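Changelog note: in this version the structure field was regenerated for every chain. One regenerated record is shown below for reference.
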Amino acid sequence: MKTYLFHNPESVTQEQFEQKMLPLLPQWRKEQALRYKFLMGRVQCAAAFILLKKGLKNDFGIDEEIEFDYIANEKPILRKHPDIHFNLSHCKKGILCVIDGTTEVGCDIEAVERGISDSLLHYCCNAQEIASVEKSANSNAEFIRLWTIKEAVLKCSGEGITNNLRDLLTPQLLSNLEIETHPCLEEGFIYTTCRKILKP
C-alpha cells in the first residue's frame, strides 16, 4: 500500500487553484470540484484526484484519463482498472490517498482541533475506548485517533458509517486488517490507513 499526502490545503489561493490544479483535472472532475461553493471544498476535491493520478502513474505506470464507477455506499473504483484499490480522505489540514494493487484499502484523515462532545464520545466509543480518551493527556487527539481507525476500517470494507461504531473494532475484525495510525500533531491532523490481509 502506498500513501500520498497533500499538506495544508488552507494555504492554496484561488489563483493557485485555477492555474495549477484545475488544468490537471479531466472535465468531469473539474465540474465536480466547481460545484463546491467554497474554495476549500474545491481544493480538497481537486487535490485528492491529483494525488490519485500521481500514485497511479508512479506505482502502476498508468497515465491515462481516470474514470470512476461506484459500488456499495458510493465507494469509487477505477472503471478501467478495478483490480487497483484506492481510497481518498480529506480535512482542512490535509488530504490523503492510499493505493494498493492487491487488496482493499481504506483511509481517514481528521483535524485534531475539533472538540469532543460527551454525546459523540459515547455514541462512537465503547467503555474501554472512553477510558482511553479520558485518561489521555490529549483527549482530542486520542478520540480523533480512534475515529480515524474506525472510519478507515469502514471505508476499507465499503460499509460507510454504521450504527455500531462503539463495538466495531472486535479482535476478529482486527485480525484480518493491517492498520497504521500517524499522529501529525504539529501539522494539526491524524491519519489512519487500513488494508485487508490476504489469507494464504
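Spot check on this record: Residues 26 and 177 are 34 Å apart (CA to CA). The chain has a mean pLDDT of 93.
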